[in-house]
Amino acid sequence: MVLALSLPLSLSLNAAAIQVPIGLEDKLEGLIDLVTMKAASFKGEKGEVVEWGEIPANLVDQCKEKRLEMIERLAEVDEAIGEKFILEEPIPEAELVAGLRRATIANTFVPVTMGSAYKNKGVQLLLNRVHDLLPDPTEVQNTALNVEKNEEEVVVKCDSNGPFVALAFKLQESPFGQLTYLRVYSGKIKKGETVVHINSGKKIKVPRLVRMHSDEMEDVSEAKAGEIVVMFGVDCATGDTFTDGKVKYSMTSMHVPDPVMSLALSPKSKGNLDKFSKALNRFTREDPTFRVGFDDETKQTVISGMGELHLQIYVERVKREYGVECDVGQPRVNYRESITRKATFDYQHKKQSGGQGQYGRVMGYIEPLEDVNAEPIFENMMIGNVISPSWMSAIEKGFKEQVYIPIYILHINIYACIYVML
Questions:
Q1: What pairs with residue 365 in β-bridges?
Q2: Model-level pTM?
Q3: Most C-beta atoms within 10 A of its C-beta, which of 8, 324, 344, 403?
């Protein structure tokens, strides 16, 4: 992927490219770093070998122009770089990197990198600039919410000797079960120790800790403030906070906003129901704003979220990650009716299909209830025991299952409801 260089106009950002591509789309061969003015090419099966060389002759003028544009935009927000730019003095590489870092941390300048995930072209350069330009954990002030004081904000210092506070920011399914990625904001976490899940209040023993290197795992015994570690076998959701129990801090608000849009979702093949359910269960753990429910009346599975794009992404993930094609539509709405005046009924059921026949008759009336908030009333006006009393509870239940809006009263006189031989 190569990013367009019209970001300042389209996003209202003070942004500039710090790299220039060598070739575009499927012809991308490498990248030119505008800070060092060197060209990088990526060799090997996965682009793991980075070879540096001179800028191709046909791109020299373009790179000079883009470098000047980068320095000009940086000079607008950084005094040290701006002074040298005005005086037209050369800017050493170390000073340019320092200026980029200051402006990036201050959110006054946005460096734009580019590359392709295919064969990792540019990934190494991106990670190098993340290391060079973005703040380390000690340079950022993080705040948590004190659950005991109505979510009052408190500063969490990046101190390994402080109380343990960590955030589950990503979940991943694996053959070993759920992997929970933790960012440790304060204190330290050790294998075998007990931590507290703030959202549920449960105490959890840490079974295993690993540090991820792409798809490779490195077992570790502990992780300190500022580190990212993966914890095994813990049932939690994205955004949950873990502490050592000494404090009740949450790194994200405990109050999840209500969804604003819903879709009805169902697998096209009934044979994929298990995969379908597994996918939705996983997504609800990953994203607290993604809701799943089943409407008993319409018999539809309804997903709800923060917008159309939000839900479309999860529909696509069900297809891509679990191979389940889904039918998507608007949730059905049950239109209900209510009575306005008293009405009587008299129904007779008679059926003969060989052998033992069926016969039954029901009589009664239905009328509105004055109190619309009251529960519906079933009144048995039958005289005698023509119908066994044990059947009456089932008859009453059958009537009440048909009552969707409790704004009427039922007076039922059961004339006969028994099976007889015809």
A1: 344, 411
A2: 0.61
A3: 324
